[in-house]
Design brief:
- This protein is α/β, with parallel strands linked by helices.
- The chain has nine helices and 14 strands.
- A hairpin with an 8-residue loop joins strand 8 and strand 9.
- The longest helix is centred in the C-terminal third of the chain and has 14 residues.
Length: 267
């Protein structure tokens, strides 16, 4: 059975694991190696289950431990050529990925990585490059869209195919506008290369969720400009106003910023 864990989701560090009884794929490595090893140990998952690593983009909260993790356990790392170049230049990544373990993906091209069929797709964000992933395994489809400024037509096609979806609900628009951030940072976050608001997240689900969708996890919430219950209630209200009832059509949960979620079975 396919399983999913979030080890952390937010500006403090992002990392997610999809795994089966024999193989696993880590998406982003933005939390400490010791924290990751402890979480795996607590859940009884050997580190050897992490067969490969996927990286969405080169910002520190997604990559700061990728070199250390890859080197210590000899794990291949996959992303686009531009993301790999960004990781190499990122001073927060003290230990770099060894060349033999740095593998390049092309957007919109599907590649078999262990037990997983992986398709990266373009995501607008102000990093060197940024991708989401559509992953299939055991007849289950999983999609992750994080650090996304706007939902493009391409992203919509992958959301509409997903059984399980991780999607950003970074900020509440009013909290951000009224908050302490400088104006240039507010503009960056609200821009099309920035982050998705609760409202835009809810609208994306209204427009693109299908009967295939079983579960949605809201990710990468801002600590300063959002709150888990606010994000959930905002998205749930937008869905309800369009006739989509959470718990009936599909489930909805918020991923924790700094602690693991527990294990979700993806059937």
């Amino acid at each position: 059975m396919l399983k999913f864990i979030s080890f952390g989701s937010g500006s403090s560090g992002n990392s997610y694991l999809l795994y089966t009884d024999k193989d696993g794929i880590l998406i982003d490595a933005g939390i400490g190696v010791r924290s990751l090893k402890k979480a795996l140990r607590d859940y009884g998952i050997p580190i050897t289950r992490v067969g490969n690593i996927l990286i969405t983009h080169d910002h520190a909260d997604h990559v700061k431990s990728v070199g250390s993790l890859s080197r210590e356990f000899d794990i291949p790392v996959y992303s686009t050529k531009e993301v790999h170049e960004g990781i190499f230049k990122n001073y927060c990544v003290v230990k770099k990925i060894e060349g033999r373990n740095a593998h390049c993906l092309r957007k919109s091209e599907t590649k078999q990585i262990g037990e997983f069929s992986v398709t990266p797709f373009n995501v607008p964000h102000d990093s060197t490059d940024c991708v989401g992933y559509f992953i299939q395994s055991e007849d289950v489809s999983f999609c992750i869209v994080t650090d996304v400024g706007e939902i493009t037509d391409e992203i919509k096609t992958y959301i509409s195919q997903a059984n399980y979806l991780v999607i950003e609900a970074n900020h509440d628009e009013e909290m951000l506008k009224d908050g302490p951030y400088p104006e240039h940072l507010k503009r960056r976050i609200m821009g099309i290369q920035g982050h998705l608001s609760n409202k835009k997240c809810g609208e994306a689900l209204v427009e693109n969720s299908t009967e295939k969708l079983k579960m949605v996890w809201l990710c990468h919430l801002s600590e300063e400009n959002n709150h888990p219950e606010l994000a959930r209630k905002t998205v749930e209200a937008i869905l309800r106003n369009s006739g989509i009832i959470v718990g009936k059509e599909f489930g909805l949960e918020v991923l924790k910023r700094k602690t693991p979620t527990g294990i979700f079975d993806l059937k």
